[in-house]
Design brief:
alpha+beta, Rossmann fold, 5-stranded parallel beta sheet, 11 helices, 29% strand
Length: 468
């Protein structure tokens, strides 16, 4: 029988953050997870849909900001979203549908591919299954003139609604031929408002978490994955785990961890669950654990996670050095460090894969900064050193170094800024007062002007950033 509880917990041991030695992640149960997919009809015959798309963010205001959102165009199974987009990005305008409607390449493809819904629905179903979503909604912005020759069956848990500017009854008949049990309406009418209210109510909302045994006193803190900050907890916690999983750092003896449990009371539904953790609990995601164990915080609120810091004589240094020279060769050729599936190509040693990838070899970080000290051709010298730092796509700069705020491995003589532009989906690197450099979406970048020094010796700096 499927677990009907709303939340579940994952547990892993933690190092480097005494007095905390465990991390507990409280997140939605797989059966309760959901997402919203948006499909735009960009075919030539579908006039006016771009205007409805511009209003979409405002219309979705009632939904939780952190609800995951997937974006597609009709007749294509290739996603347009970055993989980390949320409803909040549409609500605040940091993600605007006009970017796709103004993309001439996409419009030219759409013009010759027609208005077929089956390919995109197949892709959404496969993606939802891969993410283990049991329920998900699909919004299709179209005039209704679908060219599919037969009905598209919808799996359990999938709900589709069509949105348009003006309802044309002739085109409504085409919609009903393909999706006879799915609503087709305009934004703001009764049917769409009822759908939106239902989608809003499907989210359980925040809960109040308290230790089951309130007599126990143990070190407890919240890890904020966005700000990279640790905040000690002295009382009950109110958190919406459906918007963002709760990451708790706990100080507890291994012999006592099986006794740890929280009461979770959902305010909106007036129900309470008991969440237990123990040795049998599923482990916290590898990349999340690495981010916490390796995190450092600077004064500007950006985060730089040091994955590797290796010197001449280290047990794995020679392999890592060969990796770094290979990454440098790929960078000078403007080649990406991963393949299309996200498999890391630039670094292949066991130490590098363990620090940067999941168990299948896929890169788990948004960006990598590789700092090389020493001869970048041939054999390293006694002072050679390699530092690799992971960066995140975020609203503030992913990294900012200057003379007052830089890495522990060297002295910053020119400021270095690395920013991910969410609107344009690109990485931008700026050194000192030089013009900003846009990193090729399919490549990597060697920083031309030295920015970091150890004594009089400059570090060579390489960067690779993922777009999706």
């Amino acid at each position: 029988m499927r677990d009907q509880s709303l939340l579940r917990a994952r547990l892993s041991p933690l190092t480097g953050h005494a007095p905390y030695n465990w991390i507990v992640e409280i997140l939605p149960n797989v059966a309760c997870s959901t997402t919203l997919a948006v499909v735009f009809d960009m075919s030539d015959s579908c006039a006016g849909i771009s205007e409805a798309a511009e209003r979409l963010g405002k219309w979705l205001k009632p939904l939780p900001r952190d609800l995951a959102i997937w974006v597609y165009r009709i007749s294509s199974g290739l996603p347009l979203d970055s993989g980390s987009d949320t409803v909040g990005h549409l609500q605040d305008g940091s993600l605007t549908p006009t970017r796709w409607f103004e993309d001439r390449r996409l419009r030219e493809l759409a013009a010759i591919q027609g208005s077929f819904l089956a390919p995109v629905m197949t892709a959404i179903h496969a993606r939802a299954n891969g993410a283990q979503f049991q329920k998900y909604q699909v919004l299709v912005l179209t005039d209704g003139e679908l060219l599919d020759g037969q009905e598209i069956p919808l799996p359990p848990g999938c709900e589709v609604i069509g949105l348009t500017n003006i309802v044309d009854q002739a085109k409504v008949q085409l919609w009903r031929r393909v999706l006879p049990r799915s609503a087709f309406c305009t934004m703001g009418d009764r049917v769409s408002d009822e759908w939106l209210a239902s989608a809003q109510k499907s989210q359980p909302g925040p809960c109040i978490l308290s230790l089951q045994d309130k007599r126990r006193s143990l070190p407890l803190a919240i890890w904020d994955s966005e700000s990279r900050r640790i905040s000690p907890v002295m009382s009950d916690i109110q958190w919406n785990c459906f918007e963002r999983p709760l990451l708790l750092l706990v100080g507890e003896a291994e012999s006592e961890i099986a006794k740890l449990a929280w009461h979770c009371r959902f305010v909106q539904r007036n129900i309470t669950e008991l969440i237990r953790v123990g040795p049998e609990s599923e482990a916290v995601d590898h990349s999340q654990l690495k981010a916490i164990e390796c995190s450092t915080q600077n004064d500007r609120g950006t985060s730089a996670n040091v994955l590797i810091d290796s010197r001449t004589g280290g047990s794995e240094f020679e392999e890592l050095w060969r990796d770094a020279l290979h990454a440098q060769d790929m960078t000078l050729k403007r080649l990406p460090w991963t393949d299309d599936a996200g498999m890391l190509l630039a670094f292949r040693s066991k130490a590098a894969l363990s620090a940067m990838c999941d168990d299948s070899g896929h890169l788990v970080h948004d960006g990598l900064l590789c700092l090389i000290l020493g001869p970048t051709e041939g054999v390293p010298n006694q002072e050679s050193r390699l530092v690799i730092i992971a960066l995140r796509r975020q609203d503030r700069p992913a990294l900012f170094w200057d003379q007052h705020n830089g890495p522990s491995c060297g002295e910053v003589r020119q400021s270095l800024s690395i920013v991910f532009d969410r609107m344009e989906r690109r990485w931008i690197v700026t050194i000192g007062s030089d013009p900003a450099v846009v990193v090729s979406p399919r490549g990597s970048l060697a920083l031309g002007a030295p920015a970091v020094y150890s004594g009089d010796r400059p570090w060579s700096v390489l960067f690779f950033g993922r777009i999706a």
